[in-house]
Predict the structure.
Amino acid sequence: MMRTLVLAYLAVFFLICSPLPSVAEEKDASWVHEIRFGILDHDTDGLWSGFKREDGIDINAEILFTPSFDTFLGSLRPHLGATINTQGYTSKVYAGGTWQYEWESGLFLEAGLGIAAHNGESETDTKMDYKELGSSVLFRVHFEGGYAFNEHHRLSIMFDHISNAYLYDPNEGMDTLGLRYGYRF
């Protein structure tokens, strides 16, 4: 039943965000649209995953690529990133698609879906201060909102969640929450 719900969710997401036939024109020929750096709270308590086991601050870096594809109310861009934990707990690399919507006022919203590979624990009986993530490759969902100060500089609040979507047991999942700075080329 849970696998059917996950597959249905993914199908709806990709139908809504499926690219239209033409690629949106870009201002320049660069393959990098934006770079982002952030400071995130690792394994944030009380969010989607529900509880905290791991500690520390995460350093985040991400690249949004060109081109974008026009989608339902916005655009879709590929992304690639990494989040490194400063205390030796779970770190991850990830890739996927980011849907973006921007208002003329400078406010913007984003949502994304992809996969993440991590160096944390899939299962553990001895390391009780580590999350049991069930698999070394996980789904990653993120949401972000912020403000573009001008055409280059952006500041945002970002939330991301990684888990195996109940395809494996255990599935404790992990959330991060923090601030990111983006420089758009």
Residues 162 and 184 are 26 Å apart (CA to CA). Helices lie at 2-16. The longest helix spans residues 2-16.
